[in-house]
Amino acid sequence: MQVHDDLLDNPDYFQNRELSWLDFNARVIEEADDKTNPLFEQLKFLAIGSSNLDEFYKVRVAGLQDQQVMGVDEADTKKQWLPKKQLQEITKKNQKQVKRQYTLFETKKKELKEHAIAFTKVTNLSDCDKAHAKRLFTSDIAPAITPYGIDAYRPFPHVSDGVLHLFVRLRKTDSTYSAIVPIPKRLKRIFSIKKADKRLLLFSEDIVQSFLSDLFHGYQLIHSFAFRVTRNADIEIQEEGAEDLLSRIEDYLEKRKNGRAVRLEIEEHQMNKSIEQDIAYLKKELTVKQRDIYFLKGPLDLTFLHDVVDTLDSADLNLSFKSFTPFYPNLYHRKSIYDLVKHQDMFFYHPFDSFQPIIQFIEQAVSDEQTIAIKQTLYRVSHHSPLVQALERAAKKGIQVTVLVELKARFDEANNVHWAKKLEEAGAHILYGVKGLKTHTKATLVIKKEPSGFARYAHLGTGNYNEKTATLYTDMGIVTANKKITQDVFDFFNYLSGYNEQPAYHYLHVSPFDIRDAFIENIEKEISLHKQFQNGHIIAKMNSLTDKKMLVKLYEASQAGVKIELIVRGICCLIPGIPGISENITVRSVIGRFLEHNRVYYFYHNGSENLYLSSADMMTRNMIKRVEIAFPVLDTSLKNHIISILTLYLYDNVKAWTLNNKGLYTKLKPGGDKPVHAQKELMQL
């Protein structure tokens, strides 16, 4: 049964991308209310929710605001809402979610008190502790503070993105004055006073507010309040005519610091006419709409909770997750990765499997005199990446090193520029991506001249070459010596480095376009086989599902009777369970200790079973605006192992949320069933 064209344009069958993202962030925030998480971990989820929201405003909301400012009335492809409507709906939903976040923060504060940890203000301290706070101000804060008066000779200062500021109203004789006091980001946000039986936590902004008279001698303080601005980071990089993309990126990073204000957060105070006037003044100077002002019942920028946990963690280890050591077989100590992979493909599921073998894959190649060339794509790497350091050593040894460093990896551009320069200085051949596209692929190729001839070895994965995030994100990858796959990876790198048409690959599917075409072809085959054998089954696990062509094709498969089980961590624009449209589709989201990041696509095909791992989500940007790879798992035992992992996630009833046909998520509870916690079971395995 085909989906009729009139149904495709029915907004009732789709969810708006931005609101679906907010639903995801709400699920993250709700982890702060999950008693299966230790208290410090609950605090981290509140912090992650704030960090997520900052990026959402800098990029997604900023983009919609730009469209509205420029009069671009382009409706979204799912709900058919114009930018103005989307911004209104975002505000409506987000105001409720932020309120929930701060309600949870108040609850966590009470729970911390049970462990003798208390947030407090200087005004509540004893005289002795107030004197200690004054010493902290004098020695650790005041030397870094620069107050900015505002008058005819001192214009309204630049308010930096994400930095806490104080707006100060002063009086001298019969006149009033305004000033702004930035709290530099590099200052400690939290100061701790340890008492015999408890620990008191003070905010830097509260300490400054308490001793403002020291900054404005001769003036009387009327009031002060904290505020914070989020700025547009969605500034387009102009690649056209850019002979040196590296310098263009560096210019872009400078411009991004001064993007237009897209959100104003203000710590809520008892309102009076004077404060209302000051807020109106801020709103005018920053040119933000009332819609984008948030009054918060508590400290601004809850990401500080990460610092709180880091400061206090040693005080009570029972308040954090127990440490977990990824699986690292002794075999890897005794044998080379290359000796092992000659006999069988190797599968890794991080962080349950150690990332160390992937580092060894490069380091062993560097130390092997038979190595001729190493080729790798880098999207997000750590600040002290052992992989990049190994590539530097390889280049200095005379191994041909080719590295594609994606300079347009948002918020990692500066780090990538740094590594690109370092690698180039070492003698590596550096590529800066493909014009007009982001290269999001995770691929490495090692070429050796062995006694039997040239041999190629490849690593393909779903996650970044980053040993730090490999302990926090779930990602899958394989190391293979399969001749056809390694030939494909070889052709892929030549496509990136030279002037070539997209190659005809044996096994790889490479975006732009080909991954979507391949998945549509697999879905159509599943529909066809289901009509014959009535056993159609698709399982797909990804971060986000937004591409309308994929949504429509999944609806078509559901209408044909194919069973479709989706595990979508974040945005999902598909609505399951709609009679006659998506009644054979289920959607679940798993939010847990580790960020679910791997992408797996499974098609039953009447028992022949195609299973792909990919760097790509089913998002339009991944399908047509990025260089991505989807690669099959050919080894039957590995394929069965991955299917068993997917099945475990489909039975999770501790950390899973299910999406209903009203577009609402409900968290599952074991009830009378045995609790199934996928991540926990994988750690135990």
From TrEMBL:
Does Nuclease count among this protein's keywords?
no
Q: Which residues form the active site?
A: 440
The Polyphosphate kinase middle domain covers 130-307
Family annotation (Pfam families): PP_kinase, PP_kinase_C, PP_kinase_C_1, PP_kinase_N
**Limits of the Polyphosphate kinase C-terminal domain:** 337-501, 508-679
Metal-binding in keyword set: yes
| Positions contributing to ATP binding | 52, 473, 569, 597
Share an example GO biological-process annotation for this protein. Answer: polyphosphate biosynthetic process
Please give the catalytic activity noted in the UniProt record.
Answer: [phosphate](n) + ATP = [phosphate](n+1) + ADP
One of the record's GO molecular function terms:
ATP binding
> What is the E.C. number?
2.7.4.1
Entry function: Catalyzes the reversible transfer of the terminal phosphate of ATP to form a long-chain polyphosphate (polyP).
- How is this protein named in the record? Polyphosphate kinase
**Top-down, what is the taxonomic lineage of the species of origin?**
Bacteria, Bacillati, Bacillota, Bacilli, Lactobacillales
